[in-house]
Amino acid sequence: MKTAFISDLNSEQNITSFFLVCEKEIRNTREGKPYLRLELGDRSGTIEARMWDQFEGAAKDINRDDFIKVQARVELYRNRPQLAVMQVRLAKPEEIDIADFLPATKADVAKLYSQLLEFAASISNPYLKKLVASILDDPSIAAKYKRAPAAKVMHHAYLGGLLEHVISLCGFAKLSAAHYPELDLDLLLTAAILHDVGKLDELCYDRSISYTVEGQLLGHIVMELETVSKAMDAVPDFPANLKTVVQHLLVSHHGQYEFGSPKLPIIREALVFHYLDDLDSKLAAARAALAIDTGEPEWSAYSSALGRKFLRLDQFLKKP
Amino acid sequence: MKTAFISDLNSEQNITSFFLVCEKEIRNTREGKPYLRLELGDRSGTIEARMWDQFEGAAKDINRDDFIKVQARVELYRNRPQLAVMQVRLAKPEEIDIADFLPATKADVAKLYSQLLEFAASISNPYLKKLVASILDDPSIAAKYKRAPAAKVMHHAYLGGLLEHVISLCGFAKLSAAHYPELDLDLLLTAAILHDVGKLDELCYDRSISYTVEGQLLGHIVMELETVSKAMDAVPDFPANLKTVVQHLLVSHHGQYEFGSPKLPIIREALVFHYLDDLDSKLAAARAALAIDTGEPEWSAYSSALGRKFLRLDQFLKKP
Amino acid sequence: MKTAFISDLNSEQNITSFFLVCEKEIRNTREGKPYLRLELGDRSGTIEARMWDQFEGAAKDINRDDFIKVQARVELYRNRPQLAVMQVRLAKPEEIDIADFLPATKADVAKLYSQLLEFAASISNPYLKKLVASILDDPSIAAKYKRAPAAKVMHHAYLGGLLEHVISLCGFAKLSAAHYPELDLDLLLTAAILHDVGKLDELCYDRSISYTVEGQLLGHIVMELETVSKAMDAVPDFPANLKTVVQHLLVSHHGQYEFGSPKLPIIREALVFHYLDDLDSKLAAARAALAIDTGEPEWSAYSSALGRKFLRLDQFLKKP
Amino acid sequence: MKTAFISDLNSEQNITSFFLVCEKEIRNTREGKPYLRLELGDRSGTIEARMWDQFEGAAKDINRDDFIKVQARVELYRNRPQLAVMQVRLAKPEEIDIADFLPATKADVAKLYSQLLEFAASISNPYLKKLVASILDDPSIAAKYKRAPAAKVMHHAYLGGLLEHVISLCGFAKLSAAHYPELDLDLLLTAAILHDVGKLDELCYDRSISYTVEGQLLGHIVMELETVSKAMDAVPDFPANLKTVVQHLLVSHHGQYEFGSPKLPIIREALVFHYLDDLDSKLAAARAALAIDTGEPEWSAYSSALGRKFLRLDQFLKKP
Amino acid sequence: MKTAFISDLNSEQNITSFFLVCEKEIRNTREGKPYLRLELGDRSGTIEARMWDQFEGAAKDINRDDFIKVQARVELYRNRPQLAVMQVRLAKPEEIDIADFLPATKADVAKLYSQLLEFAASISNPYLKKLVASILDDPSIAAKYKRAPAAKVMHHAYLGGLLEHVISLCGFAKLSAAHYPELDLDLLLTAAILHDVGKLDELCYDRSISYTVEGQLLGHIVMELETVSKAMDAVPDFPANLKTVVQHLLVSHHGQYEFGSPKLPIIREALVFHYLDDLDSKLAAARAALAIDTGEPEWSAYSSALGRKFLRLDQFLKKP
Amino acid sequence: MKTAFISDLNSEQNITSFFLVCEKEIRNTREGKPYLRLELGDRSGTIEARMWDQFEGAAKDINRDDFIKVQARVELYRNRPQLAVMQVRLAKPEEIDIADFLPATKADVAKLYSQLLEFAASISNPYLKKLVASILDDPSIAAKYKRAPAAKVMHHAYLGGLLEHVISLCGFAKLSAAHYPELDLDLLLTAAILHDVGKLDELCYDRSISYTVEGQLLGHIVMELETVSKAMDAVPDFPANLKTVVQHLLVSHHGQYEFGSPKLPIIREALVFHYLDDLDSKLAAARAALAIDTGEPEWSAYSSALGRKFLRLDQFLKKP
Questions:
Q1: What part of E 165-204 touches B (C-beta under 8 Å)?
Q2: Torsion angle of alpha carbons F22, F25, F28, F33, nearest 10°?
Q3: CA angle (C7, C9, C11) in 5-degree steps
């Protein structure tokens, strides 16, 4: 099991622990002597590592994205901590707890996913119901849907976070449609379930959360537009105008141009869905900031998604 | 009863109808001949009127904010339509339907207000409950609360509009607190009921909707801050920190500096209330724009609150 | 032939001319008498028209988007000019010159289109060449491509304007790739030819230039993304990464979020293409503003696309 | 007396000096061994400190906000300097010069305050004079008014800074009213004296300058609005409209929404006061930046309040 | 003398009055009949005029920028008022009061200018004194300086307005330098006197206030930069660094990039001068808006320079 | 020759290398012992250096902007690397390769400059041709033109960079004028050659690239305005309007107020030149970011000029 996290390393410390290989290469010193250079990571950050002697075996066996066991000394180099590796080997699967490398939801994912399927099944419009079902029934999508985070840093930034976010939105959409009878619940549920499907491939979350190259070139709105459009084309007799409406729900859900929506919402369901999505994301960001113990009794951690700290209301109100 | 609305007047038309006196003055022509100049209004707009002969009696009897009966001819003057008044007298109260001058909610105001009192009574925190009750029990506030519009043009811009908006928010707040257990329903209800109390005096809505001078100098956030703070001071033992929290809910509810909130929400309930308030207002603006028949089957009227037209979804989807 | 244009009508004038029917409906006067209300248009603007008597035959024969011959008198109504129609009939095709209703390029469209095909044929990458060919060879696309304007008002706002704009871009792209050898000409040409394909259906330009409902819900970037993506899927073995690159060129070509691009250019060709497209559009807008005689010898008309007037350099420099 | 300031500490140095306790807690090492963790501060910054042995007595006696005498060694930990404390005891009052912990004005505060009272006494409007007097005569307000800084970092960020700023504004207001006879000096003086009264409690400046929780929830504009409004209510017969004017002066003095003013100035005195306040603050920020010796002969320190460095004019002009 | 102002013309009125010729051209009717088209102006606005018969003599004698006497009838054409000219002749100089065409200061210009010379003479730095003197002593500059407005619409938009503005700034600069001893009065006075010298040629104010072509291409900052730089070069031994400082004062005086200053103030005198200039301009704009009787007792006219109306404080405070 | 670059220094390393003296001063330790403090630089960065013993000779001989040879040990001080100097002497000219201190173009500068002269000679307008020639023929300008970088960090930030940028612009201008016949090539070439002449003195690039004080006070647009205006005045009979046009090209070339252009382009050549300049600069910035090996195979270094990384297209497309 992992014993030392990168953010906790102290200079001149000897450690034995497990890391993810983020980068690997052979380099030469100025004198021409080769050495092994690695970038290692865990859920707390990344660190440079160098192995100067007897690294040939390691260099052959170890590759990017491998988990390894390392015995090393923490040194300062160019004023930043670095590992001088003495021994290294591939970790055995049973030695690795992926949670040391990637944070994950504490909820029961299987249960969340069956809730999702229930929401999907509750859609009454037959075309939308078939559309959503065809997406969720695709095994490769379903597998990713159960794992994907909702974002890299902004909100729900952990495995299963996207699913949590969508379930919350489906429930809130149901309440909203009950409160505002002018709203079509089927459209809200369709938007909730499909609006972030592009994130399944915009993000990469095998061993750490990052953006894929495709994600950086296109973004999840553009990516899911293609996925969902193809799925609509595959539903027999899917009405052309309804297809346009679903596409509008997807492309307008960020609500403003500067947040990457190429169109503003001009359907009531699109307007409302944007608010629900934004509220759920921001509240999750506040929740995450409040979950971090900063030592300041009345203040959360600083939330970069919100640009501020939140007040711990209970601490503030209980004061004399 | 009113037979001609200002927005419908045609040049060279003879009319007999009722109007509100917005301005009144005696002026002289270049030749030094005095005449009576009025600005008249109804719910569709305003128009200039002049009476050239035998206006002395009228000038004595008629004042700003009076309702009058007018017989006149529509003429063009400096390229704008104007009334040449032939006869005028004060209207009798039974001749006037205030709805011809000020639009009003179609809902049952007494029923809405009793719903409001029920929401207020459902608050469990004793201090907040007393605070809200003391405001709503003030007869002068209650009388205005039953009449006030929520805005001059942006949303719910009709008598009773504020009450409709608040009732909708209370209901939505209840659903939201059920959905997000971390939220304190008492704070959300308090915010919903008190967040626009300043509008009771920021706006003037006796015979038309406009801003008071005080409203333009201070705005409803600053105005209600004083009203509600005094009410909190009058509740025995109201906790100081809770008072600060209520004040924060009021001052932060516009959500951003550029919309006149001097502080951003840093309590979760303040963040969520801002979203609920904004969503309810914007959806009402979309609803109002869709209620206007523009002759374009698929498009609402242009909503200046939203900066765009909305799609009539039913018209769009029913198309072949 | 058309003898009177709407922007030239004077009050109290009797006219006989041809118009496009933009709207048609039967309405009732307050007294309950039915009449025919039309909105008529030509390339200079639109005007309301009413027919009070013997309109039944006309009402049956005439529909939206028909061209009609009208005998009428120009009157002022609610302070705006209006036609009182005396006689009306459907126009015969030979009586109508579409150019009276829609402005068009003065260039030879067939020649421009063959230039376009030459540029398309000059692409050396086999996948991109097939992609572009498959789009341009689609007869329904080609027919629209020869007619479409590049915009409703901003630039090249006339039939054939899009084609002119694209030809100019292709030529400029070729010069740019020669000047900057690091640029891939194939990608620039592909972007030039396909970047506005969505406008073929975002705009409607049968009898006047306006936005389609689909265009307003999705916009041309989203619309062409689907068209072009399907075309790439139909090219055998089209490389997945190349597809992503082409999609990036399309979605990033507006260069900034606030202009509706959901992603900023992060490929050099995308960056450069954005500049070429913007320059060509803005220069065309300046050219159009300068083409209007405003009576001010040194100044162009005000260009809303550019937010300013341009100087007539020749007039300014020739002065003593 | 203090011998070593935090910003001057070097690694591996042994020091004996005085510090303020900013945080205190008992923590456990991974091996479960408890130790004392402190955050210590002085006017130059803050530093972590740990005491590993025999800290029980210290832990009992020492609390947050105490001044202590420390004997320690400077070490690097996780790449940041840290104190390894060997001995610690509470400082005696006579050992502490508060100026080592909080910067203060070099002016004579008593004299400044009597100048303030003179300005207050010069107000001729009887209601405004009573209002200002009632605020300044409140002993708890007066005590804070003599100590408060004008800001945490932006300008006059030292004890007595607020008083200096207000005195400068009063004098400048007098000159301005003489120069622009249309301005009411009483209103300008009232604004000058009361516009930052909320800062007395928005900031906390006992042992360091920071924001209070109430300050972060409400801000000084909202806070002083309540203080001053109550004071106006307590002046017999204070005219209602004059109260509104004073409130407007307070809420509009930041001049723009984005700087936290919920209303823009719409009275000339409010407009002018905003300029005077802004000019005095920004000039003070430039003065402070120029007072720092940066080693660059022609440039001041970077002023974060102004977003730039200022030129040392004397150095620049004296050059050959 | 002028008897009818353009803004007061009524339809179907017969008038005899004096106007400025803004444009003149011969046009043809559709039937090929020539007529004379004029655009006429006075201080209240502009109007189209047409002369259908016997205009040949007029067309020969009358040119742009002439003052003419016109007998005409006011008619509506394309829904805008227009003059049908019956008789026209050149006005005699003694018939024209330029004040009917261009508003002017009510102050004594000769007295203002001698005040300006006194301020200039009070500069103690010999180089700056010579610089300012050389500018003010140039007869062609002095003549314009006595006439120029300070702006077309924003503030001091009348003949002599620039001089009023500069005198006010000089006086205010003197007070400011007395209040803030760190400021160099010589630099402030130099900035005050020279900062708008470019407006002498940026604006054209012979018969109406408008921008010159050069003014639109360069703007007054760039224009005065050349004038003042040449004047500095002509002062023997003017120190190079002092020249740079004066140039900085000129180019930075708008205070922000978006207002056309290519550099932000980084000298204290430049910072302060920007505030004084802005305050004096904005206060003048408020003063002008308050000077217009709008019929609303408590509100000024809308000031486009300030984007709002101002409160009439006296009216507001006097109310019961 | 230089053997160790500052960015490569490791703690506890002994080095012997050459550096530029950026700052020099004698300081005292707390104990009052004097020492020599230097700031040393090379093209990779800067570092503090201290010499504790026998520094008197060095202190006398060595001055700011000297190149020196240093024997020293790398130590950590206040957590930053620092040199403890053991020996130091002035470097001999032959020991220094300026390229170790300032990056430079790899192109043949003499050849580039003769290309520039050819472009200048190709201008056909005699006044513009003489203007450009008079600038380029000035030996002191020519010398700087051959050395100047185009910017400190944004693009072409190396010796000769400005020349490269201008040559590229001249070529691109020629292509653009061929493509858009409405453009005047002479104006484009004049703009290209003169638009950054102010950078010759805005930047200082003797031994490192930085801003001059004059550059910070005025900026290159203002600086070149004076240079070029004087040169136009010196060309006999240079037409006044043409001078204004050239000045407009210079002051508008940043295209927007917020980028320091006091006027927006209102001549077509000014509009187009702004695009060409911006495109060439941004593409150069992308090129520079792509030239840096970051270890990420698909991504360039982060470009602060562009606010993003660029994709390495070749790497991305070659992937399976």
A1: none
A2: 100
A3: 135
Alpha helices in chain C (DSSP H): 56-61, 109-121, 126-136, 139-147, 161-179, 185-194, 199-202, 213-234, 240-251, 268-290, 313-318
What's the start-to-end Cα distance of chain E, in Å?
Answer: 45
* E42 against D178, higher pLDDT: D178
Tell me the three-class secondary structure of E150-206, residue by residue: CCCCCCCCCECHHHHHHHHHHHHHHHHHHHCCCCCHHHHHHHHHHCCCCHHHHEECC
Question: Which of the residues C5, C8, C11, C17 would you substitute to probe the E interface, choosing the one with the greatest number of E C-beta atoms within 10 Å?
Answer: C11
Chain A residue closest in CA terms to F9: A78
Which residue from F207, F288, F210 is spatially nearest to F42, judged by alpha carbons? Answer: F207
Pairing of strands B45-51, B80-90: parallel
Question: Using CA atoms, how far apart are residues E255 and E281, in angstroms rounded to an integer?
Answer: 13
Q: Which two tokens stand for residue E91?
A: 């006005």
Residues 6+ apart with CB under 8 A from E141: E135, E197, E200
For chain A, 320 residues long, give each residue's pLDDT as a single digit of tens: 677 888 777 766 788 999 998 888 777 766 667 888 898 888 777 788 999 888 888 888 888 888 999 999 887 665 567 899 999 999 998 998 887 888 889 899 999 999 999 999 999 999 999 999 999 999 999 999 999 999 887 778 889 999 999 999 999 999 999 999 999 999 999 999 999 999 999 999 887 788 999 999 999 999 999 999 999 999 999 999 999 999 999 999 999 998 899 999 999 999 999 999 999 999 999 999 998 876 678 999 888 889 999 999 999 998 55
Residues D265, D245: Cα–Cα separation, whole Å: 11
Mean pLDDT score across all residues of chain C: 90
Placement of tokens 């090379």 in the chain: F42
Mean pLDDT per block of 10 residues along chain E (320 residues) reads 75 84 77 81 83 86 89 74 90 88 90 97 98 96 94 83 97 98 98 97 87 95 97 97 98 93 96 98 94 80 88 84
What span, in angstroms and rounded, lies between the C-alpha atoms of F281 and B265?
42
CB A22 within 8 A of CB A46: yes
C126 touches chain F (CB under 8 A): no
Residue to mutate among D10, D294, D309, with most F CBs inside 10 A, is D10
User: Quick one: DSSP state of residue F208?
Assistant: S
pLDDT of the residue at C201: 95
Nearest CA in chain B to D256: B258
Contact of chains B and F by CB distance (3 or more pairs under 8 angstroms): no
SS (H, E, C) chain D: CCCCCHHHCCCCCEEEEEEEEEEEEEEECCCCCEEEEEEEEECCEEEEEEECCCCHHHHHHCCCCCEEEEEEEEEEECCEEEEEEEEEEECCHHHCCHHHCCCECCCCHHHHHHHHHHHHHCCCCHHHHHHHHHHHCCHHHHHHHHHCCCCCCCCCCCECHHHHHHHHHHHHHHHHHHHCCCCCHHHHHHHHHHCCCCHHHHEECCCCCEECHHHHHHHHHHHHHHHHHHHHHHCCCCCHHHHHHHHHHHHCCCCCHHHCCCCCCCCHHHHHHHHHHHHHHHHHHHHHHHCCCCCCCCECCCECCCCECCECHHHHHHCC
* Contact (Cβ atoms closer than 8 angstroms) between residue D130 and residue D233: no
Q: What pLDDT does C143 receive? A: 95
pTM for this entry? 0.87
Residue B77 has pLDDT above 70, yes or no: no
CB B78 to CB E9 under 8 A? yes
User: Does B119 contact chain A (CB < 8 Å)?
Assistant: no
B-proximal residues of C, 242-301, CB under 8 Å: none
